[in-house]
Automatic annotation (TrEMBL):
Domain C2 as annotated: residue spans: 716-851
Species: Cyclotella cryptica
This enzyme's EC code(s): 3.1.4.11
Ranges where the EF-hand domain occurs: 231-266
Listed name of the protein: Phosphoinositide phospholipase C
Every PI-PLC Y-box domain range: 614-725
Entry annotated with the keyword Mitochondrion: no
InterPro entries membership: C2_dom (IPR000008), C2_domain_sf (IPR035892), EF-hand-dom_pair (IPR011992), EF_Hand_1_Ca_BS (IPR018247), EF_hand_dom (IPR002048), PH-like_dom_sf (IPR011993), PI-PLC_fam (IPR001192), PLC-like_Pdiesterase_TIM-brl (IPR017946)
Region: Disordered, residue numbers: 1-31, 570-595
Length: 878
C-alpha cells in the first residue's frame, strides 16, 4: 500500500487483444443490444423532423432569417439550414405575390451528416450560394450533448434585439421580404454549452409544442443513457459526427487523424497511415475492411488502446496493484478484484468511507458491470468482482468526485433558519454584458444568473422617457455611462417566467438601486405587483419584528431590498457610495463612525410609499457596530470590497460577525473595477457576510470560487454558514494540513470546447484561497506541462503539493487546467473545479471539470482529473 511519498513502481499492462470475430463486426445496423451510439433512436420522431421544419432563425443582430430546422436520423445532431423565400405569381391575377419557401441544398452538406457544434454554433460552410444580404448566414449545428436547457418564449439577447428592430421599423402585418413579426407563442431557444443560444420562431402553422416535446424527450434520454457508458464511449459519440465526414458510419485512415486531433491526442500526420494499418491488423481486419474503415465499436477500442499503450506508468494501474497486489493467488497478473478487497482495502482504508457496507459495494459493482466499455476491456462476469477497467471507470466517475455528495445534496431540512444564517449567491450590476462604461445591458443576463444559481440580483433604476400615453417608463442601466438601457418591466417579466418554470425556487432578492423620481417609483410599484402577483412578498408590520424569515417561508417569492420610509426621507446606503467608501475606509474603520466628508454624501431621497410598502430589506449607512447591532433585523448594510478589507483587519472585526448573525450585509466590487473584474469572496464570507456580489459577466477566478461554494446544498443559492460564524465572541478558525497530488487527466477538451485547432499542452494549477487574521491568502502550485495530449495526460505524480489551511470552514481549493502557449500571458483556460475544503473528500478522487460558464455540457461532460488528497486529521474536527 502507498504511504509517505506515495511511490509507484513499474508494472506490466494487462493484455487487451480482441477476438477476430469481435474485430470484424459489421457497423451499419444497430446491434441487438442497444448501445450508446444508437441510444436515441428509441425516441419516436415524426419524419418531418428529418425532412425539415420551416422556422425563422434570429441572428446575432436581431434579424429574422428563413431557415429549416432538422434532426439527424440518429437524433444526436440538431441543424438549422438556410432557406430562401421565392416569389411566385398570385392566382388572383393581381399584382400581389406569394412567398414560397425553398431549401438551398446546393453545396450544403445533408443535415443527417452534419458536424458537431463549433464555438459559435455555426459550421464553416460556403455561403456564396446565398442571394441577398439576408442570406449570408451558414448552417448551425448543435450536438444534443451540448444542450443545457430548452426554453420557450423570447428570453434571450437575440430576441431582445429582434424586438428592438421591430419597434424601430414600426408595426405592420408583414415586414420587408416576407419576414413575419415576432410571435412569442411560436418562439423558443436552445441554450447550449453554458452561454450560447440558438433562437428560433416556428413558421405560421407550425407546432412549437411538438418540437419542444421531442427535444425534451431526446435530451432526457441522452442524460439517462450517458450514465451507462464509459468516458471513452461518450467522448467518441460526441465527436463522431465531426469526423465521419462522408457519413459512411465508419472512420477511414484520413478521418482517424482528424479523430485523434479532435480528442487532443497528437500523432504526426506522416505516421497516420502506419498507425491506422497497424491497429487494423491487430484487429484482424482484411484489406477490404481496412479500406472501408473502422466501426464505432472498433474506434472505441482504438481510444482504449491509445490510453493504455503508453511508455508511461499509468497511475490507475499502479494504484490497482499497490492496493490489491500485482499477482493473484495463482501467480497470474491481477486483472480483477473482489468486493471484499474493494471495500476493506480501498473504500475504508484509502478513501476513508467508513460508512460503506457490502450492500453498497454490490450495488456499485452491478452498475459497473452494466457500463458500456471497449470490447477489449477486461470484462469480468462474476458479480462480486470487477476488472481494472471497471476500477478506472469508477475512479473517474461522478460517484467518486472529490466534492462530498452529502454536502452537494439538497437538504430541505436545512432551509428553515433565518436568512441571516446563510451565504446567498449574489451578483453585481447583473444587467451588464461587459464593462461598466460602454457595454450592453440585457435582460438575458438576469436569466443566465438565475440559472447559474444566483438568488440576489441588482437593478440600477433610473427615470426613462414616457410612452404614447404619457406614462413614465423606468429603465435600468449603469447611470452616467454609455451602457445601453433596458426596461425595468422586461426584467420583472423575466423573473416571473423563471418562477413559473421553477415554482420551488428559494427567494429571489432584488437589490434595487433606486434613482427614480416619485412618479417613476409609483410605476415600478405597480409593475411589480401586476407582473409578479402572488409571487411578490409584501411584508406587514408584524413580519418586521424579531428574526428574519427563512428561505423556506419565502419559497417561490420575490423579495425587495431598497428603502422603507423612516419619516419623509432617509439616510440611505447605496452602491453609488463606492468611490467615497474607497477614499474614507481607513478612517471610518479606525473610528467606527462616519467622517464629516462621508456624511455629506448621504443624500436625502424621497421614497414613494407604494414602493416602500413592498420592500423588506432597508439599506442604512454604517456609523458604528454598537448602533448597527441594535437596529431592527430588516435593516442591512452594503460595503465596497475595500471596506470589507478594512473592517476585516480591524480589532473589532468580530463585531461584524456578530452583526451578521441577525442582520444581512452585502459586499460589492470597488467602483474602480471598470472592466467588471472580480474580487475574492473569501474574506467577506469569513465575516459572515451573506451577499457577496460578483460580476457574473466575467468568468474569472473569483467567480469560479463562488461557483464552488454554491455547488453545496443542491445549487439552490443558499448555503448555511458554518457554526463558527454563529457563535458569540471571538472564535479561532480551524486549521488543516493538506497534501495534494495531481495524477492524470481524462478527455480534456480544447479551449472553449472548440472542435478544431492544435492538440493542447495541458498543465494544472492548484490554488488554495484562504484568509488569516483578516487578510486574504492565496497559495498556488503548478504541475509540469504534458505536450500534445489532452486525451490521457499523465503528470509527474511523484510531486506533492502541501497546503496549510488557516480557515478550513471558509477556504476553497481550485483546480484549473490551462493550455500552455509560447508566453504565460497567452496560456488559455480550459476548465476548472472549485471545492470548499469543508466539502472535500480524501483519498484517490476524480475532479469533475467545468467550463467557464460553470457547466459540464458538450465537450466538458466527460473531462476530469484524477488526484490524491490527504488530510492531516479528520474533517470531523472542523
Amino acid at each position: 500500500m502507498f504511504s509517505g511519498s506515495f511511490p509507484f513502481r513499474s508494472a506490466p499492462s494487462p493484455s487487451t487483444q480482441p477476438t477476430a470475430a469481435a474485430a470484424n463486426r459489421s457497423p451499419p445496423s444497430p446491434p441487438k443490444k442497444i448501445t450508446f451510439k444508437y441510444a436515441l433512436e428509441r425516441i419516436r420522431v415524426n419524419d418531418r423532423f428529418f425532412a425539415g421544419i420551416n422556422v425563422f432563425k434570429v441572428t446575432p443582430n436581431g434579424k429574422l432569417e428563413p431557415a429549416l430546422f432538422t434532426l439527424s436520423r440518429d437524433r444526436f445532431i440538431l441543424s438549422v439550414l438556410p432557406r430562401k423565400l421565392e416569389r411566385m405569381s398570385s392566382n388572383s391575377g393581381g399584382g400581389a405575390s406569394l412567398l414560397r419557401p425553398t431549401i438551398l441544398r446546393s453545396r450544403i452538406k445533408s443535415a443527417n451528416s452534419t458536424g458537431g457544434d463549433s464555438l459559435d454554433g455555426t459550421s464553416s460552410i460556403d455561403t456564396g450560394v446565398f442571394s441577398g444580404a439576408s442570406m449570408n448566414f451558414g448552417m448551425d449545428t448543435v450536438n444534443v450533448g451540448s444542450i443545457d436547457r430548452i426554453q420557450s418564449g423570447q428570453n434571450t439577447l437575440k430576441f431582445e434585439l429582434a424586438r428592438q428592430r421591430e419597434r424601430k421599423q414600426g408595426l405592420s402585418p408583414r415586414n420587408v421580404g416576407g419576414i413575419p413579426l415576432l410571435d412569442e407563442s411560436r418562439c423558443f431557444s436552445l441554450i447550449f454549452r453554458g452561454a450560447k443560444t440558438l433562437d428560433l420562431m416556428v413558421d405560421e402553422g407550425g407546432d412549437r409544442e411538438e418540437i419542444l416535446y421531442v427535444l425534451t424527450a431526446i435530451v432526457k434520454e441522452y442524460g439517462r443513457a450517458k450514465l451507462k457508458v464509459g468516458n471513452e464511449v461518450q467522448l467518441l459519440r460526441y465527436v463522431w459526427n465531426d469526423v465521419d465526414r462522408d457519413n459512411s458510419n465508419t472512420i477511414n485512415e484520413k478521418e482517424m487523424g482528424e479523430l485523434l486531433n479532435r480528442i487532443n491526442f497528437q500523432i504526426k500526420e506522416k505516421n497516420h497511415s502506419a498507425v491506422y494499418q497497424k491497429f487494423a491488423k491487430t484487429l484482424g481486419l482484411d484489406k477490404a475492411t481496412r479500406k472501408r474503415g473502422l466501426t464505432f465499436e472498433q474506434c472505441v477500442t482504438l481510444l482504449h488502446k491509445t490510453k493504455r499503450d503508453t511508455w508511461q506508468v499509468k497511475p490507475v494501474t499502479q494504484l490497482f496493484y499497490d492496493m490489491f497486489g500485482q499477482f493473484m493467488n495463482n501467480n497470474k497478473v491481477r486483472k480483477k478484484v473482489s468486493a471484499t478487497s474493494f471495500l476493506n482495502r480501498f473504500l475504508i482504508t484509502v478513501q476513508g468511507e467508513d460508512d460503506k457496507t457490502m450492500d453498497d459495494v454490490m450495488k456499485l459493482f452491478a452498475s459497473l458491470h452494466d457500463l458500456e466499455l471497449a470490447h477489449v476491456a477486461n470484462h469480468v462476469t462474476e458479480k462480486d468482482y470487477i476488472s481494472i477497467d471497471h476500477f478506472e471507470a469508477y475512479l473517474l466517475s461522478r460517484s467518486n468526485d472529490i466534492f462530498d455528495p452529502q454536502r452537494e445534496k439538497y437538504r430541505k431540512e436545512d432551509m428553515s433558519r433565518p436568512l441571516s444564517e446563510y451565504w446567498i449567491n449574489s451578483s453585481h450590476n447583473t444587467y451588464l454584458t461587459g464593462d461598466q462604461l460602454t457595454s450592453r445591458s440585457s435582460v438575458e443576463m438576469y436569466t443566465k444568473a438565475l440559472y447559474r444559481g444566483c438568488r440576489c440580483v441588482e437593478l440600477d433604476i433610473w427615470d426613462g422617457g414616457k410612452d404614447d400615453f404619457g406614462n413614465p417608463i423606468p429603465i435600468v442601466y449603469h447611470g452616467h455611462t454609455m451602457t445601453s438601457k433596458i426596461l425595468f418591466e422586461d426584467i420583472i417579466k423575466s423573473f416571473q417566467v423563471f418562477l413559473m418554470l421553477h415554482p420551488g425556487t428559494y427567494p429571489l432578492i432584488l437589490s434595487l438601486e433606486n434613482h427614480c423620481s416619485l412618479p417613476f417609483q409609483e410605476v415600478m410599484a405597480a409593475q411589480l405587483k401586476s407582473i409578479l402577483g402572488k409571487n411578490l412578498y409584501i411584508p406587514d408590520e408584524q413580519s418586521l419584528l424579531g428574526e428574519l424569515p427563512s428561505p423556506a417561508q419565502l419559497r417561490g417569492m420575490v423579495v425587495l431590498k431598497g428603502r422603507r420610509p423612516i419619516g419623509a426621507t432617509d439616510d440611505y446606503d447605496t452602491d453609488d457610495d463606492a468611490a467615497a467608501d474607497d477614499m474614507t475606509d481607513q478612517q471610518s474603520v479606525r473610528t467606527e463612525r462616519t467622517s464629516v466628508s462621508s456624511r455629506k454624501l448621504a443624500t436625502s431621497v424621497k421614497i414613494a410609499p407604494e414602493l416602500a410598502k413592498l420592500t423588506l430589506f432597508h439599506g442604512t449607512k454604517f456609523r458604528s457596530w454598537d448602533e448597527s447591532i441594535e437596529t431592527p433585523t430588516y435593516h442591512m448594510h452594503s460595503f465596497s470590497e475595500s471596506r470589507v478589507k478594512a473592517f476585516s483587519k480591524s480589532p473589532q472585526s468580530y463585531r461584524w460577525v456578530e452583526y451578521n448573525q441577525r442582520h444581512l450585509s452585502r459586499a460589492f466590487p470597488s467602483g474602480k473595477r471598470v472592466d467588471s473584474s472580480n474580487y475574492s469572496p473569501i474574506l467577506a464570507w469569513s465575516t459572515g457576510c451573506q451577499m457577496v456580489a460578483l460580476n457574473y459577466q466575467t468568468p474569472d477566478e473569483p467567480l469560479r470560487i463562488n461557483d464552488g461554494r454554491f455547488r453545496e446544498n443542491g445549487e439552490k443559492g443558499y448555503v448555511l454558514k458554518p457554526s463558527s460564524l454563529m457563535m458569540k465572541g471571538k472564535v479561532e478558525p480551524s486549521a488543516l494540513l493538506l497534501e495534494v497530488k495531481i495524477l492524470s487527466g481524462s478527455c480534456l477538451p480544447k479551449p472553449g470546447g472548440l472542435s478544431s485547432g492544435d492538440c493542447i499542452d495541458p498543465y494544472v494549477i492548484v490554488s488554495l484561497f484562504d484568509c488569516h487574521e483578516g487578510r486574504e491568502t492565496t497559495t498556488s502550485q503548478n504541475t509540469n506541462v504534458v505536450m500534445n495530449n489532452g486525451f490521457s495526460p499523465i503528470w509527474n505524480f511523484e510531486d506533492s503539493y502541501h497546503f496549510q489551511v488557516q480557515n478550513a470552514a471558509v477556504a476553497v481549493m481550485q483546480f484549473t487546467v490551462w493550455d500552455k502557449n509560447s508566453s504565460p500571458k497567452s496560456d488559455e483556460f480550459i476548465a476548472s473545479a472549485s471545492v470548499p475544503i469543508s466539502c472535500m473528500r480524501q483519498g484517490i478522487r476524480s475532479v469533475q471539470l467545468f467550463d467557464a460558464n460553470n457547466t459540464r455540457s458538450g465537450a466538458f461532460d466527460f473531462a476530469s482529473l484524477l488526484v490524491l488528497v490527504r488530510f492531516e486529521y479528520s474533517q470531523a474536527e472542523l
